[in-house]
């Protein structure tokens, strides 16, 4: 994970991965069929974890506004707390094979569905004024995912403060 986070998928060699894992390059192939397979495993696990975070956050609240704040806050905080992992999961995804990309996209669609369903519930209850659910879902997801791109050591805001601020922004975005 650290090698991919530091160098990116293409610039990371099997030797880099092996050295960071304290094993021989051949040892990497005992656990993974290829460097791309390793990336897939990281992306798949990261997206499954993201789905758990979003679902758990939604389930922790009872009204659509509270659910939206919980989801966006938790997801933004996670992207800051785990920014190295999140960068790989979100930004190296394009290097997966079409088959692996499809598997990860299926999980991404489940994450989007959690957010979309909360937006639909908020519109139905009159809590949200969202003329385009699809675009708003994309905007909210982009907002939180982008934290992994810019967050790093030396950023003065804590992951929790970022989560709180992003939760507030989410409510403004849906005109709550």
User: How many E-type strands?
Assistant: 0
Distance between the termini: 39 Å
How many distinct folded domains?
1
Return the CATH architecture.
Orthogonal Bundle
Percent of residues in β-strands: under 5%
Largest sheet: none
Per DSSP, the total helix count is 10
- Fold-level CATH name: Tetracycline Repressor, domain 2
Task: Describe the protein.
- The protein is mainly alpha-helical.
- It has a single domain (34-173), classed as Orthogonal Bundle (Tetracycline Repressor, domain 2), CATH 1.10.357.
- 75% of the residues lie in helices and 0% in strands.
- Helix 2 packs across helix 3, helix 4 (35-59) runs parallel beside helix 7 (98-125) and helix 5 (64-81) runs parallel beside helix 8 (133-145).
- The chain is elongated and about 60 Å long.
- The termini are far apart.
What is shown here, in short?
Helices cover 75% and strands 0% of the residues. The chain has 176 residues and is mostly helical.
Question: Which characteristics define this entry?
Answer:
single chain, 176 residues, mainly alpha, Tetracycline Repressor, domain 2, 10 helices, elongated
């Amino acid at each position: 994970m650290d090698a991919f986070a530091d160098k990116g998928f293409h610039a990371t060699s099997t030797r880099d991965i092996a050295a960071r894992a304290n094993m021989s390059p051949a040892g990497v192939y005992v656990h993974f069929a290829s460097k791309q397979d390793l990336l897939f495993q990281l992306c798949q696990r990261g997206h499954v974890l993201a789905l758990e975070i979003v679902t758990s956050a939604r389930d922790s609240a009872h009204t659509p506004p509270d659910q939206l704040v919980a989801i966006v806050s938790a997801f933004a905080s996670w992207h800051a707390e785990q920014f190295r992992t999140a960068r790989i999961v979100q930004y190296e995804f394009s290097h997966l094979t079409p088959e692996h990309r499809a598997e990860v996209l299926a999980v991404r669609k489940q994450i989007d569905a959690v957010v979309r369903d909360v937006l639909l519930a908020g519109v139905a209850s009159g809590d949200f004024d969202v003329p385009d659910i699809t675009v708003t879902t994309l905007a909210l997801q982009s907002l939180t995912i982008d934290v992994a791109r810019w967050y790093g050591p030396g950023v003065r805001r804590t992951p929790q403060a970022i989560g709180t601020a992003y939760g507030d922004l989410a409510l403004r975005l849906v005109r709550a």
